[in-house]
Amino acid sequence: AMPEAGAVLAFDYGTRWIGVAVGDRTLGSAHALARIDATRRDESAAAIARLIEEWHPVELVVGVPRPDLGRDDPLTRSARAFGRALGRRHGLPVVEIDERYTSVDAASRLREAGARPAQRRTLNDPHAACVILEASL
């Protein structure tokens, strides 16, 4: 069943950076929102909590890399654990989306938009989250 209408936050989880995008299922829209330093767990948890407080999402979407061989690798397990923790902490439903190649797609989009290499490095994570969110809409 589809969740009620409202904002949806998507996360491109990584061990260094977490990209965040926001969208709306009713409008079918998504846009890049933030890049959070994942190496500082307390600070990243607080930043995510602020975004959830600001946007009041009805659902969270987490990109989970699904290896071609079908077995979970360490990043897959970490992304799933991240999603489960988000759902528990904020009392929201979490949907997992296969995020293979989303960073490549985001980099391509940024390149086509004329972003310089330094901009692409900073913007790639939130734009990858946007690609993940678009896949779920």
What does this protein look like?
- This protein has 137 residues and is α/β, with parallel strands linked by helices.
- 46% of the residues lie in helices and 25% in strands.
- It is built from four helices and five strands; from the N terminus they run E-E-E-H-E-H-E-H-H.
- Strand 1 and strand 2 form a beta hairpin.
- Helix 3 crosses helix 4.
- The radius of gyration is 14 Å and the shape is globular.
Figure out the total of helices.
4
Which value, in Å, is the CA radius of gyration?
14 Å
Say how many strands there are.
5
Flag low-confidence runs: none
Strand content: 15-25%
Q: Averaged pLDDT, please?
A: 86
Helix/strand/pairing class, anyone? alpha/beta
In spatial order, strands of the major sheet run 3-2-1-4-5
What distance lies between the first and last C-alpha atoms, to the nearest angstrom? 13 Å
Chain-wise SSE layout:
Blueprint: E1 7-12, E2 17-24, E3 29-37, H1 41-55, E4 59-64, H2 74-90, E5 94-98, H3 102-112, H4 117-136
Parallel strand pairs: 1-4, 4-5
Antiparallel strand pairs: 1-2, 2-3
Helix pairs in contact: 3-4
